[in-house]
């Protein structure tokens, strides 16, 4: 779907708002229903994964459903020579995502009758948590960009959602892996909140993880032209009928 930048930014705003509302709201609900921290985390991870999958499926055709400045930056970096997002689009997306994330946290608090505009008092400090954020973000970038390199973008709603649900459990930080959501979650003093003072090092760790993820993409899949060439050869080899025209078309595309 071809949409204007304004519409795409609006979709990113609404999508990120909905995502953070799902994350924060499910955390609040879980805490109210059970005192078991393990059950609370399980509920939060499952609901987050379900909600993320729905949002990517619904909004992907309009804006790409980045919902995350890291994904937007990775999209720009990998597509900067091949018609990817322009720097101005990256900036507009990031602003829309961050504003949406703040709105999502405030909306979740309002839905559950909690105090709004109260910053989180939950510190998330320590090198082990920063390492967890770097790992979570690196894995996300590797997955999102890697799916494009192997021609499996259609699986993104399921696989990205599954990865985030898993990363909430296997990383020490709980896998924020999203600078916009990290800022937004500073505005809720609830289960999924993060103290404002903990936000800058988390975002820095996410930036390091994003770079690491892009390096891994290059190491595992090669550069863009190399990956495109491999996809062309796979397509040609898989089709026994009329290989010569297929090869010519693929070479023109590259």
Automatic annotation (TrEMBL):
<dbReference type="GO" id="GO:0016020">
    <property type="term" value="C:membrane"/>
</dbReference>
<feature type="transmembrane region" description="Helical">
    <location>
        <begin position="12"/>
        <end position="31"/>
    </location>
</feature>
<keyword id="KW-0677">Repeat</keyword>
<dbReference type="GO" id="GO:0005737">
    <property type="term" value="C:cytoplasm"/>
</dbReference>
<feature type="transmembrane region" description="Helical">
    <location>
        <begin position="37"/>
        <end position="59"/>
    </location>
</feature>
<dbReference type="InterPro" id="IPR023271">
    <property type="entry name" value="Aquaporin-like"/>
</dbReference>
<feature type="transmembrane region" description="Helical">
    <location>
        <begin position="127"/>
        <end position="147"/>
    </location>
</feature>
<dbReference type="GO" id="GO:0015250">
    <property type="term" value="F:water channel activity"/>
</dbReference>
<dbReference type="InterPro" id="IPR034294">
    <property type="entry name" value="Aquaporin_transptr"/>
</dbReference>
<dbReference type="GO" id="GO:0019755">
    <property type="term" value="P:one-carbon compound transport"/>
</dbReference>
<keyword id="KW-0813">Transport</keyword>
<comment type="similarity">
    <text>Belongs to the MIP/aquaporin (TC 1.A.8) family.</text>
</comment>
<protein>
    <submittedName>
        <fullName>Glycerol uptake facilitator (Major Intrinsic Protein Family)</fullName>
    </submittedName>
</protein>
<feature type="transmembrane region" description="Helical">
    <location>
        <begin position="90"/>
        <end position="107"/>
    </location>
</feature>
<keyword id="KW-0472">Membrane</keyword>
<dbReference type="GO" id="GO:0012505">
    <property type="term" value="C:endomembrane system"/>
</dbReference>
<dbReference type="InterPro" id="IPR000425">
    <property type="entry name" value="MIP"/>
</dbReference>
<feature type="transmembrane region" description="Helical">
    <location>
        <begin position="154"/>
        <end position="172"/>
    </location>
</feature>
<keyword id="KW-0812">Transmembrane</keyword>
<dbReference type="Pfam" id="PF00230">
    <property type="entry name" value="MIP"/>
</dbReference>
<keyword id="KW-1133">Transmembrane helix</keyword>
<feature type="transmembrane region" description="Helical">
    <location>
        <begin position="202"/>
        <end position="222"/>
    </location>
</feature>
């Amino acid at each position: 779907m071809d949409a204007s930048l304004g519409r795409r930014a609006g979709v990113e705003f609404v999508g990120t708002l909905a995502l953070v509302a799902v994350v924060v709201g499910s955390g609040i609900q879980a805490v109210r229903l059970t005192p078991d921290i393990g059950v609370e985390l399980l509920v939060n991870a499952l609901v987050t994964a379900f909600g993320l999958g729905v949002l990517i499926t619904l909004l992907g055709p309009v804006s790409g459903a980045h919902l995350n400045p890291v994904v937007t930056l990775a999209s720009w970096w990998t597509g900067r020579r091949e018609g990817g997002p322009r720097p101005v689009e990256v900036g507009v997306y990031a602003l829309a995502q961050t504003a949406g994330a703040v709105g999502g946290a405030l909306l979740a608090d309002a839905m559950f009758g909690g105090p709004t505009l109260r910053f989180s008092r939950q510190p998330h400090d320590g090198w082990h948590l920063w390492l967890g954020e770097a790992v979570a973000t690196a894995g996300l970038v590797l997955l999102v960009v890697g799916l494009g390199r192997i021609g499996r973008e259609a699986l993104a709603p399921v696989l990205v959602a599954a990865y985030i649900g898993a990363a909430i459990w296997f990383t020490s930080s709980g896998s924020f892996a999203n600078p916009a959501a990290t800022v937004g979650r500073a505005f809720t003093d609830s289960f999924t909140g993060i103290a404002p003072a903990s936000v800058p090092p988390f975002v820095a760790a996410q930036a390091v993880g994003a770079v690491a993820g892009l390096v891994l993409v290059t190491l595992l899949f090669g550069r863009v032209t190399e990956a495109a060439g491999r996809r062309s050869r796979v397509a040609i080899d898989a089709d026994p009928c009329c290989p010569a025209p297929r090869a010519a078309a693929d070479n023109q595309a590259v």
